[in-house]
Write a structure and sequence with these properties.
The chain is mostly beta strands and 354 residues long. It has no helices and 29 strands. It folds into 4 domains: 99 residues, Sandwich (Immunoglobulin-like), CATH 2.60.40.10; 77 residues, Immunoglobulin-like (Sandwich); 86 residues; 74 residues. It has a 5-stranded mixed β-sheet, with no helix packed on it. A 5-stranded mixed β-sheet has the order 9-15-14-11-12, with no helix packed on it. Strands 17-22-21-20 form a 4-stranded mixed β-sheet, with no helix packed on it. It is elongated, with a radius of gyration of 39 Å.
Length: 354
């Protein structure tokens, strides 16, 4: 006898139903593939796939189809059945397949924490389907240590953290296996750069200042708008109570790290100047005695400080003027004039007939 024949296994492989028991429906559909094993040369395979209400999705009479796939669109418990024949019936096999909706993710793009108060972060919504069967693993990427095995991470540390969450059945199969990483930054140090609108209407003095950026550590974080679930508060105190002058304001800005730890705040105070809208009013006008004689005159009164007064058609600048000052412009023809007043980069205009 050829010695190689001693190593030939003449036993046939028996049929069995092979395939996943868990499928994760991420995009609205998920494909599951199943096999019948056995010997495809001599064996015949009959297939059924039924939905959660025993709705028949697939039926195949016994034939040479050893493997089969199905696109599942309905979440819930499905059943796959296999009938195998090799001249005579070899058996009926059945497998339950759970099609599970992807869990609702709760992680934000980034987080801000404080050293004195732990930050609590949840990976997925506890109301997600099959939540109680999920396994979790949070890792501090700097140390490689596993820091939590629950849905919630509680930490006062900053750094990059990765969470893996997945489902595992009794056979060790995994599904809905996701991995996400997030950065947590301590906001114990904060620098605010503030810029106010230079032109502010009298009735809206500095109600809406602009917060340019928040600098934490070495990185600048845009807060216009603020990251989701983060808040900024501002308080104003006027130092100069005269509303007709250029004012100096002091403002206190507070940045709240996250709504999950709302009791912790850090703040910064700064001062800056701004210009109120230049305001002036018509007092009187002396009309020119003839259309071609430039002997007309008008008087206007400055309500706020004015750096200049200009009549558009002449381009002549007059000023500066203080609030309350009576301003006379003479040598005017009889006409309608657009008078422009300026304070810093703020402009205001008034149409006047002489």
């Amino acid at each position: 006898m050829d010695s190689d024949l001693a190593y030939i296994d003449l036993r046939r492989v028996e049929p069995e139903l092979i395939g996943p028991a868990l499928l994760c429906n991420i995009s609205g559909t998920v494909v599951g593939s199943f096999g019948g094993a056995g010997d495809p040369v001599t064996d015949l395979y009959g297939w059924k796939i039924l939905g959660p209400s025993d709705t028949l999705f697939i039926f195949r009479e016994p034939g040479a189809i050893q493997n089969i796939s199905n696109t599942f669109i309905t979440n819930g418990t499905h059943r796959v059945e296999l009938v195998a024949n090799r001249g005579n019936p070899l058996g009926i096999f059945s497998k339950q397949v759970q099609v599970i909706e992807e869990p609702s993710k709760l992680l934000e793009a980034e987080y801000f924490s404080c050293p004195s108060q732990p930050l609590e972060i949840q990976a997925i919504d506890p109301s997600s389907g099959s939540f109680s069967f999920y396994k979790f693993e949070w890792t501090n990427n700097a140390s490689g240590a596993v820091v939590s095995t629950s849905n919630t991470l509680i930490t006062s540390d900053e750094g990059n953290f990765t969470v893996r969450y997945f489902l595992k059945n009794s056979s060790g199969e995994t599904a809905c296996d996701f991995t996400q990483s997030r950065q947590i930054t301590n906001n114990s140090t904060m620098i605010l750069s503030l810029q106010a609108k230079e032109c502010v209407w009298m009735a809206k003095l500095l109600l809406k200042p602009i917060l340019n950026y928040l600098e934490i550590g070495l990185s600048k974080k845009s807060v216009t708008p603020l990251p989701k679930n983060h808040l900024a508060r501002e308080h104003f105190q006027r130092l100069d109570q005269d509303p007709t002058s250029r004012l100096l304001e002091i403002m206190k800005f507070y940045f709240l790290g996250n709504i999950l730890n709302p009791t912790f705040t850090v703040g910064e105070t700064t001062t800056f100047t701004y210009n109120s809208e230049p305001v002036f009013v018509f007092e009187s006008a002396d009309t020119s005695s003839g259309c071609l004689q430039a002997v007309g005159k008008l008087e206007i009164r400055a309500i706020t400080d004015l750096e200049f007064i200009r009549i558009d058609t002449t381009g002549v600048l007059n000023g500066p003027f203080v609030a309350g000052e009576l301003i006379e412009i003479s040598n005017l023809n009889s006409s309608t004039y657009n008078v422009v007043g300026g304070l810093g980069s703020c402009l205001n205009s008034l149409g006047i007939f002489v």
